Amino acid sequence: MLFNSFQFLVFFPAVTLVYFIIPRKARYLWLLFASYFFYMCWNVKYCVLIAASTLITWFCGLLLSKTQRSRTKKWILAGGLLSNLGILFFFKYFGFFLDNLNKILQVFHLTVIDNPFSFLLPVGISFYTFQALGYLIDVYRGQTETEKNLLRYALFVSFFPQLVAGPIERSGSLLKQLRSVDKINLWNYDRIASGFVLMVWGLFQKMVIADRLALFVDAVFGNVYACGTVELVLGAAAFSFQIYCDFAGYSSVAVGAARVMGFDLMENFNAPYFAVSISDFWHRWHISLSTWFRDYVYIPLGGNRCGRIRRYFNLFVTFLTSGLWHGASWSYVVWGGLHGLYQVVGDVLKPVRKWFVTKCGVKTEAESFRVGQVFLTFCLTTFAWIFFRAEGLRKAFDYLSRMFTRWNPWVLFDKSLYSWGLDVTEFHILVCALAVLLLVDLIRCKKGMDFGCFLQKQNLWFVWLTVISLIVSILVFGEYGINFNSKQFIYFAF
To answer: Can you tell me the distance from the alpha carbon of 393 to that of 396, in angstroms, rounded to the nearest whole number?
Structure first.
């Protein structure tokens, strides 16, 4: 069940209406039922996996609360982590592991191993697994209270707005809210209106911008050898905005839907393409995942508390792991490694940059300097996105090779660009939609609040004009427009 589907258009209001009118004590049970129904719409069989992950981490959490011996606690934690990661490895990485093992065997002329398993990747398995593991680690550290109610904990793991693509919530936030769900004042106009605006904005990002960009991106990445520099550069830049609007759109709908029901989910995106450095980018992009890796991988490895070389090693391990989390492919690993390399090189070159700024009299407080930083950061992230989007390393390198060697500036003037998925009209619609996106992100940077909260503070006529304009744009230029089809959210594949 996609957020941008007719089914969800019926499902969410129905679930919310019942949630608002049933007795307070039954609220979390109804949400649990709705969440499992939501997940079963993808595949009934995969409910066994989320139930198994839930039971394992819940039981391990109980054991941790009843055990005082440090050694025993470590064994319980290890058991919970390995069992959940084992499930994740089997369904997501076993095929990848076997393919690479077979390549090694072929080098030594040994018999390859056939893969006896054939199944689709369970939707959202990386997200709910990490959410459950975060809870278990927090219990082990004594940072969160053990949840004794199995059904309430099951809701924490499966809460449908953020189940399949995040944000990856922490037990100290979402589970705490679920424990007091019967005390939430549901009939709050400002909160409901703010959540509804976020949902509409998320659908606009997905259906008007991301799905439209997908037509151009798919055409370019699918025909690399017919493209020159201009098409390939624009294709890479287009994918940067496509994946942003696709994933941020989902997150906005998720946060908005939860807000309508009285829950506050963590912010997942904060105008990432206004970042002034790669480090700043990761403070703004997929925040729930980047903070998860910071708290549960980078800091346990030693974080910044060790020497420079070890700190760089910790960074690389964290980003390589983050890349592998996104998918079972070496191209994802390279993508993560590039972001680690960016940060290491950036840190190494700090004295050089400082010397250059001082020697040349560069005004670092000038707006032009910040614009330059934003542009450079966007170029670096876009370069890395090529590995993320390309179907394998070879195609990524072919893409880069042609991008730097097939100079064809004339396509900017001969209108041949309009043959790559978007005609003149659709291109103009896209430009206008991207302008709206950048304006909203600029407001986010300046005001420090999401779009829903910003509109909440405006005059009523402006609020209604904005919301109606967005809805009309979705209906006319979104998936209901001519020649456009609803596409699955990109991060559902992870």
So the answer is: 5
